[in-house]
Amino acid sequence: MRVNVDDAAVDGLAACVDAPPRVYIEAPSHAESLRAWTEQGDSATVRVGGTLVLHAESFSGPWIEVARDSLDADACWVRR
Known about the structure:
By secondary structure, the chain is mainly beta. It has one helix at residues 7-17; strands at residues 22-38, 54-67. A two-stranded antiparallel sheet has the order 1-2.
């Protein structure tokens, strides 16, 4: 029998195996935002076939540092 596992599933397993002793979780006031703009400005006019250069920044936080073993096995966390 042959089983195919996608890369994302394998990466997820590897992250749990190498879990550091301290990780970060979202604080109760956690928020995420995305800021996007064009290089040409707010009133950019682009012709068909032209180039529109976009820029974006994402922000998230605040984060709380906790002991990994204080979380449930299925808890979401990130390492830094």
